Amino acid sequence: MHIIVLGCGRIGAELAVTLDKDGHSVAIVDRDRESFRRLPDRFTGRAVLGNGFDRSVLEQAGIDEAEAVAAVMYGDNSNIVAARIARETYAVRRVVARIKDPKRAEIYQRLGIPTVATVTWTTDQVLRRLFPDDTVTDWTDPSGSLLLVERDLPEKWAGRRLDPLDGRDRYRLMAITRAGEARLAVPGLVGQEGDILHVLVRKDTAEELEALLRGGEE
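Given the sequence above, the corresponding structure tokens read:
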């Protein structure tokens, strides 16, 4: 997969190196040549000098073939402009934008751009948003029989009640993160695009839960 990282600060450099190590084709963009010093000698991706919202720079970074873009530049506005160009002009399916103002998160989510506020912004969080179909285990009890997993809400669940995710003794939706804010799950809760699910599940029923999420019905 070809992935473009916009911004070669601490998070951008770490993200680019991680993706490169995992075997992806990576291009990282920054307007400051000195920032590329954060990249180790073993980095095999492309370093492109320029503004991340400049279309000629994006094309030099391979936007036409990119399957994902992570905008992690310094400014919120730069990240959102770049993310919208990637999504709306080049139809990149997986786009993530870094923000510092959590109050803007809900607006950006409505534009179909996953965002993470700075207070929770880590390389791990970026990777989770770039690969939304992956289920990530956040916690396991000492016996290994119970898992707390995180999963992006599948598109087909948006606008639907999430009650089916209360599988009694098999799995249970505990909370969701919406627009950067966590909230406990309550009966009748309706899913929204961009929601992140936090589900407690028995290890032996994890595949059943995943099948439910993929299928959209019990």
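Residues 2-130 form a domain with the Rossmann fold fold (CATH 3.40.50.720). Try to locate this feature in the token string yourself.
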